[in-house]
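Contributing new records

If you add data, match the layout below exactly. Sequence lines come first and carry their own label; structure lines follow with theirs. Keep one chain per record. Anything else will be rejected by the validation script.
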Amino acid sequence: MDIFMKQAIEMAEKSFNEGGIPIGSVLVKNGVLLAQGHNKRVQENNPILHGEMDCLNNAGRIGSFKDCVIYSTLMPCYMCAGTIVQFKIPKVIVGESESFSGARAFMESHGVEVIDLNLEECKALMRNFIHEKPEIWFEDIGEI
């Protein structure tokens, strides 16, 4: 597993330890870590503060995202995928998509390369969270 996915997993674990949803993300440009973030919907009572959104917010204004890769422990939802497409981030590396299939086809239809690593570590984080706090998970994915 590469260092950047490890950092995304660390961010997911941080969110879980704070009582939040265990989804982490990092943004890399030309092999250099620019920003990291994690889902803070619960912690900050903010419905749009998904892991990818927190990460991009932490990156700030960097000009072009065309040489970036965004890592996420879970396949991005349509909101996060829309932001990835809007900023023309060309590549997304995902820890898993079994817990949530997300918006892979949408991103790919807009030219984004999506790589799903199918990591058991990421699946276990989500499986444990969904088992412990199903009401928060179903709220997060709009199924309540």
